[in-house]
């Protein structure tokens, strides 16, 4: 998935029965982990467990490219 510069990705939400993970291919990704915003940079892997509140966005002036993985399971 690609996010343009200064693009909102997704508002705060959760997935009851699946995890979500992000592998940053290029650029930077801001991920809200339910408590604080963390920055993922090129080569970083960010994981959100089932039921975990999260949101993501690109706050930089450069595009962000990432792989997203969803895995089913129970919360």
UniProtKB/TrEMBL annotation:
<protein>
    <submittedName>
        <fullName>Cupin 2</fullName>
    </submittedName>
</protein>
<dbReference type="InterPro" id="IPR013096">
    <property type="entry name" value="Cupin_2"/>
</dbReference>
<dbReference type="InterPro" id="IPR014710">
    <property type="entry name" value="RmlC-like_jellyroll"/>
</dbReference>
<dbReference type="InterPro" id="IPR011051">
    <property type="entry name" value="RmlC_Cupin_sf"/>
</dbReference>
<dbReference type="Pfam" id="PF07883">
    <property type="entry name" value="Cupin_2"/>
</dbReference>
<feature type="domain" description="Cupin type-2">
    <location>
        <begin position="3"/>
        <end position="70"/>
    </location>
</feature>
<dbReference type="InterPro" id="IPR053146">
    <property type="entry name" value="QDO-like"/>
</dbReference>
